[in-house]
Amino acid sequence: MTHLFAPIVLALLQQAAPQRLLLGREGAGFAETIDGQLVLHMKGTPYEMGLQHGRILKPQVVECVRSYLDESELAGGKRTLDDLIAVWKEAEPFIPDAYQEELRGLSEGSGVPLRTLHALHIMPTLHHCSGAALFGKATADGKLYHYRSLDFSLYFGKSKTVQENACLLIWEPKGEIPHVAVGWAGTIGCVTGMNAAGISIGEMGSGSSDETHAGTPMWFHLREVLRKSRTLADAKKLFTDWKKESGYNFIVTDGNARDAVAVEVDRSRLVFFGPGDPKENVPPHTAIPDVVRRVNHFVDPELAGRQRKPYDPSISKEGSWLGYKRITEFVTQHYGNFDGPMMVSLCRQYPPTHSCLHQAVFCPEDGRMWIANAVNPETSDAPGAQNQPFHFYALPDLLKTDPSTLKPAGSDAASRPATASDPVVKSEGDASDPAGKYRWSMDVRPIGKKRLEGELAFPSAVTTGDANNDLVRATYFRPTAKTSLPAVVLLHHSQNDFKLERWIAGELSNADVAVLLIRLPYYGERRTPGGKGPLDVPSGLEGLELAVKQGVADAVRGADWLRARPEIDKSRVSIMGVSLGSLVGALAAGMDGRFDKCCFLLGGADLASIALSNVRETKSIRALLDRTKLSDEALRTRMKPFDPLTYAKKIRADRVFMVNATKDEIVPRASTDAFAAGLDLSHGPPRLDWYETGHISIVVHVREILDNVKEFFAAKDVPAAR
Fold this sequence. Notes:
Layout: H1 2-15, E1 20-26, E2 29-34, E3 37-44, H2 46-56, H3 58-70, H4 73-78, H5 81-91, H6 97-110, H7 114-122, E4 130-134, E5 145-150, E6 166-173, E7 179-184, E8 192-195, E9 199-205, H8 218-228, H9 232-241, E10 248-254, E11 259-265, E12 270-273, E13 291-294, H10 301-305, H11 313-316, H12 318-333, H13 340-347, E14 358-363, E15 368-373, E16 391-394, H14 395-399, E17 407-408, H15 411-414, E18 425-428, E19 441-447, E20 451-459, E21 471-479, E22 485-491, H16 499-510, E23 514-518, H17 540-563, E24 568-578, H18 580-592, E25 598-601, H19 607-611, H20 619-628, H21 632-639, H22 644-647, E26 656-661, H23 669-678, E27 687-691, H24 702-714
Helix pairs in contact: 1-13, 2-6, 5-7, 8-9, 17-18
């Protein structure tokens, strides 16, 4: 439904008069907010534009630098400031003087040391998104439309994330072409942008073994293309002459000529692909007339040879290939109907949980653009740009803006949206445990108008001797609209950030299904200091077995807590697991026997076969098993008490919904089929949905999967597969 209504909503947004407020001025430059979005106008020489940037947005510049350098994992762990400066010095001879001068002005205006700005501006060189351009027969009006999505971490910064200082940067360089970039306060480079002459550009990382730091950094080069190109031929010449440094894909468009190219490069090679180019027809890739598109792998065989083996990206670059395939399917399905809003719908095909910092759609022929930026993950279950509102702008109108006509922003209007959480209500004890045996404690805060979230802690019924691990941590997602609610115990996959599960829980609670998201032993807040999970405990296989017992006991106790809640229908408490959580959840369901429904994503049985599989994700398990010196048969015997298949017969198959991948490299299809066949089939078979993906890449179907999961848990009976 979201995709169907997107064009209508966007059309209304374009017609509505935006609220524009003046934040500050410096020389010919000024900053404003347009419907709360930060826009910076800079005019003059490079030094003058940098000075305007630094003086007008000094607080935001300082925050952004801190987010990237002081608070990022790059600065705190993998790289030091000196490391970044060393890379800058390698690239410095190839960086045009204009950007050196602009950085000097930015430093003087903001008070941030120039050396620090150099370190910040070399970081994109160290990080290796998706994009497409369509025109002619592919679009509704023949005009060219270009979309670009920046897949980048949403967790740069703690006190303030980078995306909270997102800014539309508009440069009007003296004697050169005005241009705009989707960026952030304190940065002068471009990865996504358009100029007033009808050129747009977007970058997608595509790593190669043939790379160097001794070249012009990509995001300065893209500024050069926008600053100097009036035609696609101009842009191609600049690319041909570029002192290249790393592996990238680009899409460059000329709206006036209604033409575009995809550009693939590494240090030694550059290849242009035109729309419908026969060079694209290298299986499994296919050319589409009047369309170019790229993700994070090369099509050119020579470049691909320095990137991956085998050539087929569906095997060697599966995540990137699925992005290419998804774009191809959507473009083919809607061919001839594309305009700005339909391109936004293409952007929204991204999985909702994908880490996407910003998305942009350009119509460079007339300067229209639609921009969305991510939000702080602490304030949203789906913080990526693909889930946020798209704001409409017209570059010609922005360039005509007279700051003297803007209403000055007052102290309230000028402030950016607050990110502090709502007041916390603390409670000790709980009606589900009147004797106080489990010493419940819960902090509760409202999330919008649809639900409450509570952080829950209680001692596990199974102890390991690790005091931190033995205190169970959970988050309770409680809908506020109704009583007699269905509820779900949710168990996560083998990661510590729980982003996917928090998003699932938020969506379920918004559909009036309560959720208790439990951290499994040794994950999240229960981790042993310095450890990564139960495989890191010193007691080896015994410790792993104890952790599984504890996880099952925690899930069962969590379900008991839900059944005692006054807002919950105790006959409708179910369980759901994702990957690792599915294995533990299946054990809990079979051993306890009281769960109403079961939903298992990427689950199965035959743990010994899974543990012994030769894939990266089970490497730690194999290493642990190697230390035990057990034969395969002895291992199977020992693991039988912990295998979901041992207890599957106690689970009603007709109350089970399983979602699995045909190419799953971790949980093979035979394991899933064995578990499904081992269920109690006397009332009917389970619902089993298969997707043509791998274990990880199934995430591209997460929206469809979650819609089915919500329907499954919200209904009293089991909905039929659609």
